């Protein structure tokens, strides 16, 4: 049995969940993309081809690639999982009792692959082949969604994140992404690769209103040696960090959490868009955001779940102490101020480390990739002209479920 365990950001990557963008992208339009948290519409076929190159690059590095669509489809073959997903994703509160029942009856007859495609990719009123007695059809246009597409599922990093011997199934900050979490709850609960495997679910497995305690995996860096680095960003709150921290300390999986306060703006949506770990002592950073005056705290605790919070000063020193390395090598975004801003926007700092000093990144970020190369970091380049429009790089598009420690 393969071990579900992620011991670092830079140890050998062994298994990963990724999601090939499909149906959801066909539903993106200039009039709805912002509501669905995309800045642009993508060329669907080309985005899929670019993602295939990403998947093959991972496989060439010896990484086992699990595709989210397949995992969800296989989970739907478990009757209990199918019933739970239909009830939770198409609830009476979401659509009203009459339409919800009619939609569930229609979906219940679909094959698993097709049902997975609709749950991930959405369904418009015009595509619904059911005439319901509900008022809902009468008050909606054909282009309105019965089930909203989930284009951000492309970024599998955010919805759940593995931390040492367990997983946080993350309550997402934005309504456009909240339904994603139920897909991962179902997969981890019922899919044969996960059911009964004895891993810890730290946070987020219960169906409840998590209110202000939101976390997204792009803000969580498992830096190794029992330490975790978390960015408090537009999407991850101090309340969410404290809830996760309490569970991690209770299970004795972590010895400390370093929490950094990030600015709440789009260019810095998650910590990993401005900072990633590339080798034990080496990080990429975008210095415009990851400045010396960033507020930083160290969280510690014990098996009671009590969390002790102390200000930690300069985050670089806190990381050096946690990893027992130093001085840290920080590689800043390449080019002049215009070029570095453009490259950070195109995810130059959001690279996926497959083993120490070897990373996958977008080929378009030439100035930053040159700096990585000069620092002894090997970049395995992938095209990102379409994928990058979703504002996420190789780290965003991957959820490691098995990775060595350091």
TrEMBL record:
PANTHER family: ARGININE DEIMINASE. InterPro entries: Arg_deiminase. The active site is at residue 396. It catalyses: L-arginine + H2O = L-citrulline + NH4(+). GO terms for molecular function: arginine deiminase activity. Pfam families: ADI. NCBIfam families: arcA, PRK01388.1. The keyword Cytoplasm applies. Its EC number is 3.5.3.6. Its main location: cytoplasm. Belongs to the arginine deiminase family. Keywords: Arginine metabolism, Cytoplasm, Hydrolase. It comes from Photobacterium pectinilyticum. This is Arginine deiminase. It is found in: Cytoplasm. Pathway: Amino-acid degradation; L-arginine degradation via ADI pathway; carbamoyl phosphate from L-arginine: step 1/2. It is an enzyme of class 3 (hydrolase). The keyword Hydrolase applies.
């Amino acid at each position: 049995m393969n071990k579900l365990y992620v011991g670092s950001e830079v140890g050998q990557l062994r298994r990963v969940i990724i999601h090939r963008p499909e149906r959801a992208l066909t539903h993106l339009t200039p009039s709805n993309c912002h509501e669905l948290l995309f800045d642009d519409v993508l060329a669907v076929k080309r985005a899929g081809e670019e993602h295939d190159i990403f998947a093959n690059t991972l496989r060439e590095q010896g990484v086992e690639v699990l595709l989210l669509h397949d995992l969800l489809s296989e989970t739907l073959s478990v009757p209990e999982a199918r019933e739970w997903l239909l009830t939770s994703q198409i609830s009476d509160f979401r659509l009203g009792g009459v339409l919800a029942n009619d939609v569930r009856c229609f979906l219940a007859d679909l094959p698993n692959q097709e049902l997975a495609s609709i749950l991930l990719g959405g369904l418009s009123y015009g595509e619904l082949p059911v005439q319901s007695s509900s008022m809902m059809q009468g008050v909606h246009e054909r282009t309105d969604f019965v089930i909203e597409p989930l284009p951000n599922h492309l970024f599998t990093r955010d919805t759940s994140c593995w931390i040492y011997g367990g997983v946080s199934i993350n309550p997402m900050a934005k309504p456009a992404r909240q339904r994603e979490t139920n897909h991962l709850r179902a997969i981890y609960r019922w899919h044969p690769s996960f059911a009964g495997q004895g891993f810890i679910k730290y946070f987020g497995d219960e169906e409840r209103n998590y209110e202000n305690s939101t976390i997204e995996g792009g803000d969580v860096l498992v830096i190794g040696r029992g330490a975790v680095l978390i960015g408090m960003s537009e999407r991850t709150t101090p309340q969410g960090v404290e809830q996760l921290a309490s569970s991690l300390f209770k299970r004795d999986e972590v010895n400390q959490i370093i929490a950094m306060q990030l600015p709440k703006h789009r260019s810095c949506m998650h910590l990993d868009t401005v900072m990633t770990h590339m080798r034990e002592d080496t990080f990429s950073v975008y210095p415009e955001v990851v400045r010396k005056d960033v507020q930083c705290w160290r969280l510690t605790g014990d098996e009671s779940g009590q969390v002790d919070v102390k200000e930690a000063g300069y985050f670089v020193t806190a990381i050096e102490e946690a990893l027992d390395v130093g001085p840290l090598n920080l590689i800043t975004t390449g080019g002049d101020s215009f070029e570095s801003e453009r490259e950070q926007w195109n995810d130059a700092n959001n690279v996926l480390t497959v083993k120490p000093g070897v990373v996958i990144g977008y080929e378009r970020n030439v100035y930053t990739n040159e700096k990585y190369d000069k620092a002894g970091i090997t970049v395995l380049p992938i095209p990102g002209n379409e994928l990058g429009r979703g504002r996420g790089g190789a780290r965003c598009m991957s959820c490691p479920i098995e990775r060595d420690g350091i």
